[in-house]
Amino acid sequence: MHARTPKHFVLEERLERYADFIEPAPQDYAGRWAEACYPLGGTSAAGGAAGAGRFREVRLDLGCGKGAFTVESARREPDVLFLGMDGEPLCMAYAGGLAAKSGLKNVVFLAWDGHRVTEAFAPGELSRIYLNFPTPFPRKRQARRRLTDATCLMEYRRILAPDGTLRLKTDSHPLYLFTLEELAAAGYQVLWTSEDARADFPNDPTSGYEERLAANGAKVFALEATPGPEPAHFSPTPQRGLVEYLPQDLEKLDYVPLGMEATVWNMRNREAKLWAKGHKGSGSASGGEKIC
Ligand SMILES: C[S@@+](CC[C@H](N)C(=O)[O-])C[C@H]1O[C@@H](n2cnc3c(N)ncnc32)[C@H](O)[C@@H]1O
């Protein structure tokens, strides 16, 4: 999932060039995003001195990548402030460039780790958090790095408005199933789910990964959830590998989700070897079963 840079791309130079659209210290604006950025155009990425007025809502695109979804969303709703957050400097350089070219006054990118998102916002400051194609981190030992782990969802509760929502889109059915479990553990109410979001919401802005994965035949699984009553006794869920959410019969898997290509390839190989071994031992080519 590492982006290759074009030949003459110098990261530091790009970050410098688009510094007006990339905020490296978002914690300085916690609690005053809607006012501080209205209208954008001050000396810092976040807008500098407060203008007269405020944005109607502040929404966060968490793990925004190169920012296509953030910028297109901002273009469609000029009275909403769209903040894109990503921990990858290369993504920030691309996203900053996109924001600069757009000429929009309601989009800023935050170079920040999503696991520290609560430092960047005051309680209840966000009306929505988008998680578009979050990195799946499929292995069990990486489970806590998933941005939909229940411990993260508990953090998002603090910065979401009481009627705020979380929207997930992913090509990964395993990550989608995992997220539904984690949402329940963190006391969220699921408002809707979709197992084919491109068909159900054809006019939604698309993200870079959505475009790319759809071209590979991906279906998009999506949901929206809102924080319900806080669980009285929350404890982190057990760490689970996403392989546990794959169908038993891999033949049924007509699309391999992002990040699980090697796992599925290994599992299919192992099954093929076991099958071949079993059939060698049986003394007949097919063991009486239909094989094709
Ligand atoms: C698969 S990409 C999807 C990017 C974009 N949302 C899209 O749909 O095109 C996942 C992105 O999440 C970012 N990411 C992963 N973990 C993160 C974290 N803890 N904090 C911030 N960004 C993170 C990665 O750097 C990457 O850009």
Automatic annotation (TrEMBL):
Gene3D superfamilies: Vaccinia Virus protein VP39. It catalyses: guanosine(46) in tRNA + S-adenosyl-L-methionine = N(7)-methylguanosine(46) in tRNA + S-adenosyl-L-homocysteine. It is an enzyme of class 2 (transferase). Keywords: Methyltransferase, S-adenosyl-L-methionine, Transferase, tRNA processing. It comes from the Bacteria. Its EC number is 2.1.1.33. It holds the Pfam family Methyltransf_4. One of its GO terms (molecular function) is methyltransferase activity. GO terms for biological process: methylation. Signal peptide: none annotated. SUPFAM superfamilies: S-adenosyl-L-methionine-dependent methyltransferases (SSF53335). InterPro entries: SAM-dependent_MTases_sf, tRNA_(Gua-N-7)_MeTrfase_Trmb, tRNA_methyltr_TrmB_bact. The keyword Metal-binding does not apply. The keyword tRNA processing applies. Substrate binds at D171. Catalyzes the formation of N(7)-methylguanine at position 46 (m7G46) in tRNA. Belongs to the class I-like SAM-binding methyltransferase superfamily. TrmB family. This is tRNA (guanine-N(7)-)-methyltransferase.
